[in-house]
Design brief:
Elements lengths: L4 E15 L5 E13 L5 E5 L5 H6 L1 H6 L13 H12 L4 E5 L3 H11 L15 E2 H7 L17 H17 L15
Parallel strand pairs: 1-4, 4-5
Antiparallel strand pairs: 1-2, 2-3
Length: about 190
């Protein structure tokens, strides 16, 4: 039996409120980009051509830290194209996905892989693993913080960092962050 392939991923996404015709508000979560890597150096990177650019530009954080790192429009793909290319990248080997912290990443990935959570490819573990939980359990090692700099908030660079973090978390001793407990005034 072949070993399960571990894929590390990150997404960049946009959340905003959309007004419906009947006056109600709907919270929208849209994929901007996804990056995936494995220990053998194989990578997948795609940018969604269909995300709401006007809403993205209104969000200062997204506009200044995510949009500036995206390739030109001509290199972007529809969600249908991303879904097919992602399934081709995964192939048929048993696969587990690992990510850092944001539940939105897991939600967006699973939506790309299946029409719903019950109809995922049979070789894909339906429960992505949040590496942040191990990080917390190990005492929040100081030397393992997300990268800062030019690659920060680029989905593929962040996916590579998650892989490196997981590798380090699985194999070493750490100096945990000493947490200061602040008494409450309750």
């Amino acid at each position: 039996m072949a070993a399960t392939r571990k894929l590390y991923f990150d997404t960049e996404f946009l959340e905003y409120d959309a007004k419906l015709e009947d006056g109600r508000t709907l919270r929208v979560l849209e994929l901007i980009s996804i990056g995936i890597t494995d220990k053998d150096g194989k990578t997948f990177y795609a940018v969604n051509s269909e995300f709401n650019k006007l809403e993205a530009e209104k969000n200062h954080f997204i506009a200044s830290t995510v949009l500036t790192k995206l390739p030109p429009d001509a290199e972007r793909k529809t969600l249908a194209e991303i879904k097919q290319e992602l399934k081709d990248f995964i192939g048929t080997q048993q696969t587990s996905f690992h990510y850092w912290f944001a539940a939105q990443d897991s939600y967006l990935l699973l939506n790309l892989l299946g029409e719903n959570f019950l109809k995922l490819p049979p070789n894909v573990d339906p429960m992505p693993i949040n590496v942040a939980q191990t990080y917390r359990d190990k005492g929040h090692p100081r030397h393992m913080v997300p990268p800062k700099g030019d690659d920060e908030h680029h989905a593929l660079a962040d996916a590579k960092w998650v892989m490196e973090l997981d590798r380090r978390l699985q194999g070493g001793a750490f100096t945990p962050v000493k947490r200061r407990i602040i008494p409450s005034n309750d």
